[in-house]
Design a protein that fits this description.
mainly alpha, globular, 64% helix, Hydantoin permease
Length: 486
């Protein structure tokens, strides 16, 4: 298919108004990526959209993904087949958001939480950038590190703290090297992870009981079968969409001539395929006799119980490798978001690498504290990230639609670009969605009155944020698009 026409980056015309990432990096794999969140010059663009397929595949072949299929049945009481349908729908919606935003990478050549300054303004962007720095660099880092550490500890018979240090050091090393090495690492990890987890899923499906129906005695089953179904869609969507604030980070080095459709499908399927397979496998795992999660079991014990010895060992290695694959993206994009706050650490040439190490150290401390009750902490964390990411998506997608994709790159770096519309709209989406929240930390009044609705906060938050942004910034965004197109 012929490449679609996209605007070529114009940073060279703007001089100092658009900082260009310095240093000779090119496509070298083992060179430490220089700079931070600056615009990627056209001479430095390289690669094809296909690399996004394995870059998004490998991080999702992991235990945290499979556990998403377990939660709707063991926690919400869902039946097997409704859960399968729900996680497929939720994964497709979440993956589509990653695919859409990835197409912006070749167009603008900046990280996702820098491009969002167009809608949020320089200071207003502190809201999503700060939340994503915490979510990616600390929250997701801790969640995946814990599962990877449990797996390595069981596989190698290592104390938890020793295994934790090993996992953290590997993750930080890959993220420290940077963009090209991350893509290569995910490419090498992809075949092993895809084969091992697919075989493990098939073995679990053979032993499963697909006739399992709704369980009214589950901890959060008061919404009935419909409530469990909607909650399953939400957690699957929240997981897939949780990657959305990272999307442009791994596509911004692609040439502007890259075909948008190829970029979309490579990223979208990269997220969707492993999520759909593993979440269905997780739903099946929840129905296998003898896999109940006991009080002394680690989160990974439940997965390997129905697997034969050799496959169990290979799967434990896959869990550890998958956790590392996910966390190198979390550290890298967490650093991008942190730098989007305008913070400068060390020299401009090495600031991204320095922040990656700092985030690794903080994530290590959080992971140590999260060893206890990891499963329920994961459930609450999944829901919480969905509560802010969907309003964020509502704002930036509406802004892009209003502007017809036309942006002046200077806006992304202009400290005088002041608008409160994005932050107000996002906050409105979060606040209005609170009555619809449904988790162990908080039941909103709408949920208490109509429990069969499950958790509709992701729909409410997105719609409210989009409508409020349209009302507050519609004319300004349209005018900005006209000026940028000139």
């Amino acid at each position: 298919m012929a490449a679609e026409s996209v605007p070529v980056g114009r940073a060279q015309e703007f001089g100092a108004d658009v900082p260009i990432r310095e240093g000779d990096y090119g496509d070298r794999v083992m060179a430490v990526e220089p700079g931070g969140i600056e615009y990627i010059a056209l001479a430095e663009r390289h690669g094809t959209p296909l690399k996004l397929f394995w870059t998004w595949n490998s991080p999702n072949w992991e235990f945290a993904t499979m556990f998403l299929g377990v939660i709707p049945i063991t926690v919400f009481g869902g039946g097997f087949w409704p859960t399968v349908l729900a996680v497929v729908i939720g994964s497709a919606l979440g993956a589509a958001s990653v695919g859409i935003l990835s197409t912006w990478g070749p167009r603008f050549g900046v990280p996702q939480l820098v491009q969002s300054r167009g809608a949020f303004g320089y200071l207003g962007n502190f809201l999503p950038a700060g939340l994503n720095a915490l979510t990616a660099g600390i929250g997701w880092f801790a969640v995946n590190t814990i599962s990877g550490t449990f797996a390595l500890s069981t596989l190698a018979h290592l104390p938890f703290q020793v295994a934790l240090i090993i996992i953290v050091l590997v993750q930080v090393f890959v993220a420290f090297i940077g963009h090209n090495f991350i893509h290569q690492f995910e490419k090498v990890a992809f075949p092993y992870l895809a084969i091992v987890f697919t075989i493990a899923t098939l073995v679990i499906l053979v032993q499963s009981n697909p006739g399992v129906g709704f369980n009214p005695k589950a901890p959060v089953a008061f919404g009935g079968p419909l409530g469990a179904f909607i909650l399953a869609i939400f957690v699957a969507f929240a997981y897939g969409a949780g990657w959305a604030p990272y999307s442009m980070d791994y596509a911004r080095y692609l040439p502007p001539s890259s075909a948008s459709r190829a970029v979309f499908w490579s990223a979208m399927l990269g997220v969707f395929v492993p999520c759909a397979i593993l979440e269905v496998g997780g739903a099946a795992l929840a129905t296998v006799a003898g896999t109940a999660w006991g009080p002394t079991d680690s989160p990974t014990d439940q997965l390997v119980k129905p697997l034969p010895g050799i496959l169990a060992g290979l799967t434990l290695l896959g869990i550890a490798l998958g956790a590392v694959s996910a966390n190198v993206l979390n550290i890298y994009s967490g650093a991008m978001s942190f730098l989007a706050l305008g913070v400068r650490i060390g020299s401009l040439h090495r600031q991204r690498a320095i922040v990656a190490v700092v985030f690794g150290a903080i994530g290590y401390l959080v992971a140590r504290a999260g060893e206890v009750d990891a499963g329920h902490s994961y459930e609450n964390f999944l829901l919480l990230i969905g509560y802010w990411i969907t309003p964020f998506l509502g704002v930036i997608l509406t802004d892009y639609w209003l502007r017809r994709g036309q942006y002046d790159e200077r806006e992304f770096f202009d400290r005088r670009h002041a608008t409160v519309a994005g932050a107000l709209a996002m906050l409105a989406g979060i606040v209005v969605s609170i009555p619809f929240w449904n988790q162990t930390l908080w039941h909103g009044p709408v949920v208490d009155a109509l429990p069969q609705l499950g958790d509709l906060s992701f729909i409410v938050g997105f719609a409210v944020a989009a409508l409020v942004y349209f009302a507050l910034a519609g004319r300004r965004a349209t005018a900005a698009a006209t000026a940028a197109a000139r």
